Amino acid sequence: MVPALSRSCGELIRRWDKMIPDEGYLELDVFPEIQNVTQDAISRTAFGSSYEEGRRIFQLLTEKLHLVMPSFHSVYIPGYRFLPTPMNKKVRQIEKEVERILRGMIEEREKALRMGALSKDDLLGILLESNMKEGEEEHGKSKNRGMSTEDVIEECKVFYTAGQETTSVLLTWTMILLAMYPNWQTKVREEVLRVFGKNTPDMDGLSRLNIVTMVLYEVLRLYPPGAFLLRKACKTVEVGGITYPSGMIFLLPILLIHSDQEFWGEDAKEFKPERFAEGISKASKVAGAFLPFSAGPRVCIGQSFALIEAKIALSMILQRFSFELSPSYIHAPFNLLIVQPQHGAQLKLNKL
Ligand code: HEM
Fold it and tell me: Does Oxidoreductase appear among the keywords (predicted)?
């Protein structure tokens, strides 16, 4: 995984290296650049050899998001999404195309596996191989058929959506905050250079990046990619002395919990990575107030992946470039399913 991730980041570094003049700076919106890296990383690690088709899926999902985005900010009309409006038709067309690509990739891999090919070292290969093994095991008289192709398609879609945009906003906000707080940018770069020099990051070194980890946690606290969580009661429940009926929807406002002075102290709204110096449990006044990846049985299964990817990308960027805010940058965090910089992340990049 680490080589695949550093390969994705390496392409960005080489691109910026060519674009930035030796003397002077390059002004750039880094948000789409970073989105490109995280898409590349998921495509490589999840779909390995089917990388090109993987990239096409991202284009389609992005197109779909832009189509459905306006409806998040308008009145909800039950059943509207089933009407044959031009937008709904286009969305359905995109969904069918995504499914067609995924089904093609899955069937091709399944065929190769049945013919005895070794599974590839990527998520799709691991998923299909374990599914095939499970399908071959006999459970009493009936055979357990494992997951259907439809189930595998749905799992792949979850990985695409859950794994990409979240990590790209984490990295983008981190660059913005390190541009706003140059003293932290210097501290983080010093640590990266101490641990890796100018070498490609490796797993052993990543676990020694304490300041980088503190900074990433503080960015996740102030700009949690998912601003809230939703839960639906499947039976009557009592919470805080109040009884709620089955079917009640609960909204857990992560963003508000992360900036509550009662939990984080008077400086709750300030960027202070040092609050994580002794780990997550000592950073807040109450346990469980840090929830960027949720908690409990449905906790994010990709959190280690996301943090490894963010550490690799950040280390490789800081090894080669310094950056500051461009005068054209407008600070406007915007919650569009994911908390993102509404007008982009315009930075001035210099070679070191
Ligand atoms: C900074 C990066 C990330 C953040 C902040 C994040 C956050 C979250 C949160 C809050 C949830 C719980 C959602 C809920 O219960 O309603 C979740 C679930 C999930 N995440 Fe992540 N995530 C990140 C990266 C990733 C990555 C890289 C992957 C995959 C490679 C991933 C895969 C998933 C999956 C599959 C679930 C659903 C788990 C389940 O329902 O059992 N996430 N994530």
Answer: yes
